[in-house]
Recover the amino acids of this structure.
């Protein structure tokens, strides 16, 4: 165990990490946010999912430092009288789960399909890419409608509240894999004619090994750029779906749907419903992106081996 | 080349067929179109009669067969709401979206290239970090929020920009009414295209930066430095040319995202384009229009990807567009 | 040829006149535009608003719920089934044809063919034309709401709509999903003529130069644009891009009120928002005490204050003030302690779990109201699984009775108390159509009997007693969960001098009477 740790400590990965202040700060902030959101039931002053504690008469209480603020609600309350701070913590957990889960699913599907399409080419390539076109035309909205129909047939309307998170991960994950597939495929097309691939073939490496070990690392750069941005997109897509009644249930708001629902109040004075979750989301996405940038620089074979 | 295009065309037909089949099978999930056609107090019997008349009660394959037969003649059915052939409705709304996407693309290209290159050449400079930071903020602010903020600041507070719609249009020909040729029309274009750009620009800045940094580290650039070429020539000619490839690919793919965001932008600005039409069709359960829209978008995707593949083949001679081994 | 020439000259002349007289243009933004130019194609708020602009009814509602003569100058009841209407003379249709009793009879015959209106006009028999300007409107039996229905009779130009169009389709055909003559042409007697129309984008309405009512307002042109997004609609008004918007989202009320150039107009409406408790799906809801407990647990006054920003009237019954059935003593009854007590008495001290559905784009703040009610019910240990969805999907689910608790709002087309009960609370019956929206399956034969009695009772006092009795029974039975009556809202520039006088509880602003600065 200790040798592993030693190994890790001496690695280029770790070395570049402790020498990059931005990376360290981002990492610390991200860890803090993740810890906060997953320990929300312990640290949050209220339980926003427990409807018995919510009173509509507390609705739109401003933050504590403003006139009319209530010491019970540090950052004020939303239109239902939920404590914003607690709702943000709970909501961030949902958003992180959905954002990361969906992006992981998209990336996995996209990379596999993109590698296969690019590497083997021909009819298989055409078929997969046209499938991607079909998929793209349907956009997230239609995919959500389609899958919700299947969900409803299996579980009925009343189970929705429990199944919303996996449902949304599947929907957003399935909807946007073509973005990855096309990018990876394009890189593969460019890479597979290069000498090192030919060399690997001559040596007799299997297709799988060539794809994963040799070609994939060279496509990493665009994948990481897309991924970090897709996390933000996934979180916002979830919020947009709530309009169709296909997002998180209104009683269990995510960060995105908080921003969404508060946005109509922004000009009527109750800006805190949107602004606080908005700031939190920006910070969250910012650190994920900064870490993504750093990771890309570190992992990219061309950059340091070049 | 010709064979390639013919094959792509056949593939497009296949894509549209698949889309129509899926679209048809899920249209019931959108809702009952008859509900939007009648008042709330209309009896069940009357509604049933209307469903019967519209053929909505027929078995799935009969409805689909009827649809295909008509589709062969270029008729995708009639929009329930607009009371016109769905194809006409889509064609009349398409120019609005195309113009919006066109202006947005120009903005994205004009800004993303210099910013991306700058951030790649001077990654440690304060300005680069600022640009990269701002780009994250841009991505994480939902587009409808950006849109409504723009309206609030420039229309309500300052009163310098129109708040909704396309303004004065000029008839170009056919279905095309353009807002590009009048002052009023251009003014109406400004805010929606900025809102859309705010989402797409960060992605491209980051992408160009990432690709460019990679290229700058590569051997032939080092060789160029060693040869004593001028920095400008290295950056803009040698390095930049090689970053283009992935940017073009991602650009083609991001068109999908762009379409998704036109939906949000158009509905905030009451911009009468395809995105707006899509939302309306979903809300009114105008299923014919919805299926036609999906087919149309599918066709556009195949078209764009074909173009991307052709450009790709031109830029990178190693990739043969025939795709055959 | 000469005719054409004079027509051209006339247009030219009127254009000049318009230019000289400093034409007044009203820029109007609604959430959606009327779906057609044929007033009988759909029975909806939007179509009736359109009808008020382009057509004129026989009589219309005033702000205080009285009848105002329009194309009928006066009327008298001849016997329990007949009312004689005396029609206005010298009225012209937009086509130039004169308006006569024949047009009224023709229009009524067409109403009976319209899928949307035929239900409302079911009690009517064929009218009798006495002379060109007198008509007897006859009902099959004694019918107390004859005048209410006369507000829906917007005479159409029978000559204009007779014959066949270029496709060989009869001009009077009512076509919901395709092109038809009436969908794209109009000839009414109203103040405005449709000059340009692009569905979903823009309408231009111009004042009709031969309009009979010379005392009407001074707006020469109306440009109607639908703006669906609430925030954009409000922004368009704030920035001065439009002069009048409807409806106004509650969260923006205070912002408009504070603006010195704008006026916010609200008025109590007749649309009641309720929840129905499905007794067939949930045996618990068949227990009167449980239903009462739920009514006691819902703080609808709080919902009105916080979510509706005070612009709604908390309800304890279906009929709002001014309706015959309204009983002043039946007030909202929020009392959490009592609710808990009732749950205990009913044998459910630990409550139960149930499902609830509500639309998210049908009524004002519908989703938020449902959410608030769900959390209120959790306080008496009823755990609610809430699902909200857009209206396009909602009605399918509603009809399928997909959840235990379902939201429904209702505005009676007849502007009469009995209509609420007929649709929402009478025993559901496929054949008669009563109880079509009774998803609670509340069924009380006494209520049914009383409502049927009220349908033929023409004596106002007796009828009032019956309808009030119904409200009392429903209240005692806790037949539904009353929330509030939605207020109607409009906002306008202060340039519109009498904007608050032209609106009414039916939400048919009489723009013809608008005076603009």
């Amino acid at each position: 165990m200790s040798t592993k740790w030693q190994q890790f400590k001496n690695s280029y990965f770790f070395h570049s990490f402790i020498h990059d202040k931005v990376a360290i700060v981002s990492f610390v902030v991200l860890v803090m946010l993740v810890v906060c959101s997953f320990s929300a039931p312990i640290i949050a002053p209220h339980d926003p999912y427990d409807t018995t504690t919510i009173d509509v008469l507390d609705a739109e209480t401003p933050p504590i430092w403003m006139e009319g603020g209530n010491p019970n609600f540090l950052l004020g309350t939303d239109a239902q009288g939920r404590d914003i701070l607690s709702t943000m913590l709970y909501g961030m957990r949902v958003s992180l789960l959905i954002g990361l889960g969906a992006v992981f699913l998209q990336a996995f599907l996209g990379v596999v399909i993109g590698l296969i399409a690019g590497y083997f080419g021909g009819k298989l390539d055409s078929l997969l890419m046209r499938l991607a076109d079909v998929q793209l035309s349907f956009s997230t909205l239609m995919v959500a409608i389609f899958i919700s129909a299947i969900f409803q047939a299996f579980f009925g309307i009343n189970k929705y509240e429990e199944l919303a998170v996996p449902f949304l991960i599947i929907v957003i994950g399935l909807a946007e894999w073509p973005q990855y597939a096309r990018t990876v495929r394009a890189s593969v097309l460019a890479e597979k004619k290069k000498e090192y691939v030919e060399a690997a073939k001559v040596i007799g490496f299997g297709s799988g090994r060539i794809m994963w070990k040799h070609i994939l690392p060279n496509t990493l750069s665009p994948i990481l750029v897309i991924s970090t941005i897709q996390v933000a997109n996934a979180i916002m897509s979830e919020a947009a779906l709530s309009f169709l009644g296909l997002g998180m249930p209104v009683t269990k708001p995510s960060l995105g749907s908080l921003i969404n629902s508060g946005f109509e109040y922004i000009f009527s004075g109750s800006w805190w419903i949107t602004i606080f979750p908005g700031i939190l989301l920006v910070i969250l996405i910012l650190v994920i992106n900064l870490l993504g940038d750093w990771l890309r620089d570190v992992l990219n074979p061309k950059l340091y081996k070049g | 080349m010709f064979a390639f295009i013919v094959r792509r065309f056949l593939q497009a037909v296949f894509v549209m067929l698949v889309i129509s089949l899926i679209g048809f099978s899920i249209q019931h999930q959108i809702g009952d179109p008859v509900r939007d056609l009648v008042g709330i107090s209309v009896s069940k019997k009357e509604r049933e009669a209307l469903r019967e008349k519209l053929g909505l009660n027929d078995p799935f394959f009969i409805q689909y067969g009827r649809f295909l037969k008509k589709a062969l003649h270029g008729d995708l059915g009639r929009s329930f709401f607009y009371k016109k052939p769905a194809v006409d409705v889509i064609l009349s709304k398409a120019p609005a979206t195309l113009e919006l996407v066109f202006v947005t693309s120009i903005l994205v290209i004009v800004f993303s290239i210099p910013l991306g290159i700058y951030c790649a050449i001077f990654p440690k400079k304060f300005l680069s970090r600022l640009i990269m930071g701002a780009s994250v903020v841009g991505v994480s602010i939902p587009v409808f929020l950006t849109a409504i903020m723009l309206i609030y600041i420039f229309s309500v507070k300052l009163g310098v920009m129109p708040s909704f719609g396309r303004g004065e249009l000029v008839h170009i020909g056919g279905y095309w009414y353009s807002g590009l040729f009048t002052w009023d029309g251009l003014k109406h274009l400004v805010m929606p295209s900025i809102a859309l750009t705010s989402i797409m620009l960060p992605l491209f800045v980051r992408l160009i930066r990432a690709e460019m940094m990679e290229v700058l580290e590569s051997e032939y650039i080092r060789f160029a430095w060693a040869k004593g070429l001028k920095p400008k020539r290295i950056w803009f000619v040698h390095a930049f040319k090689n970053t283009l490839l992935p940017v073009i690919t991602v650009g083609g793919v991001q068109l999908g995202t762009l379409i998704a965001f036109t939906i949000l932008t158009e509905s905030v600005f009451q911009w009468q384009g395809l995105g707006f039409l899509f939302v309306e069709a979903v809300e009114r359960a105008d299923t014919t229009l919805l299926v036609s829209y999906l087919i149309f978008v599918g066709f556009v995707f195949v078209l764009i990807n074909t173009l991307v593949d052709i450009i790709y083949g031109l830029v990178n001679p190693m990739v043969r567009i025939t795709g055959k081994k | 040829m000469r005719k054409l020439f004079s027509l051209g000259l006339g247009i030219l002349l009127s254009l000049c006149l318009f230019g000289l007289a400093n034409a007044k243009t009203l820029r109007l933004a609604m959430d959606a535009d009327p779906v057609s130019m044929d007033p009988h194609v759909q029975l909806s708020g939007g179509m009736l608003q359109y009808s008020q602009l382009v057509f004129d009814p026989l009589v219309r509602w005033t702000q205080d719920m009285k009848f105002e003569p329009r194309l009928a100058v006066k009327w008298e009841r001849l016997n329990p089934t007949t009312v004689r209407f005396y029609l206005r003379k010298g009225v012209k249709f937009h086509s130039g044809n004169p308006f006569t009793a024949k047009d009224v009879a023709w229009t009524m015959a067409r109403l009976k063919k319209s899928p949307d209106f035929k239900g409302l006009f079911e009690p009517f028999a064929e009218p009798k034309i006495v002379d060109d300007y007198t008509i007897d409107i006859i009902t099959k039996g004694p019918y107390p709401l004859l005048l209410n229905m006369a507000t829906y009779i917007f005479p159409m130009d029978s000559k204009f709509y007779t014959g066949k169009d270029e496709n060989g389709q009869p001009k009077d055909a009512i076509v919901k999903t395709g092109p038809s003559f009436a969908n794209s042409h109009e000839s009414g007697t109203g103040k405005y003529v449709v000059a340009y129309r692009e569905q979903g984008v823009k309408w231009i309405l111009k004042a009709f130069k031969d309009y009979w009512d010379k005392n009407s307002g001074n707006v020469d042109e109306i440009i109607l644009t639908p703006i669906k997004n609430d925030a954009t609609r409000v922004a368009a008004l704030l920035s001065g891009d439009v002069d009048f918007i409807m409806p106004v989202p509650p969260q923006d009320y205070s912002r408009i009120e504070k603006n010195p150039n704008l006026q916010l107009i609200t008025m109590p409406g007749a649309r009641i928002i309720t929840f129905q408790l499905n007794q067939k799906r949930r045996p618990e809801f068949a227990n009167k005490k449980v239903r009462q407990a739920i009514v006691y647990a819902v703080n609808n006054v709080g919902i009105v204050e916080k979510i509706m920003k005070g612009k709604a009237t908390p309800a304890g019954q279906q009929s709002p003030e001014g309706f015959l059935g309204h009983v002043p003593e039946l007030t909202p009854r929020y009392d959490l302690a009592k609710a808990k007590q009732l749950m205990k008495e009913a044998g459910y001290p630990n409550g139960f779990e149930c499902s609830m559905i509500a639309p998210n784009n049908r009524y004002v703040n519908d989703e938020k109201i449902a959410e608030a009610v769900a959390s209120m019910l959790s306080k008496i240990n009823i755990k609610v699984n809430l699902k909200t969805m857009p209206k396009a999907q909602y009605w399918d689910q509603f009809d399928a009775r997909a959840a235990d608790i379902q939201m429904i709002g209702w505005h009676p087309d007849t502007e009469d108390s009995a209509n609420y009960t007929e649709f929402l609370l009478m025993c559901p019956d496929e054949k008669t159509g009563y109880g079509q929206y009774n998803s609670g399956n509340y069924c009380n034969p006494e209520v049914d009997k009383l409502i049927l009695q009220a349908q033929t009772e023409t004596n106002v006092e007796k009828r009032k007693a019956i309808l009030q009795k119904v409200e009392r029974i429903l209240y005692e039975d806790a037949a539904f969960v009353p929330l509030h009556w939605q207020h109607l809202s409009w906002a306008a520039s202060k340039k519109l001098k009498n904007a608050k006088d032209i609106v009414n509880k039916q939400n048919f602003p009489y723009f013809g009477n608008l005076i603009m600065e």
Residues 89-322 of chain B form a domain with the MetI-like fold fold (CATH 1.10.3720.10). Chain B touches chain A through 63 residues (CB under 8 Å). The beta strands of chain B are 170-173, 176-178.
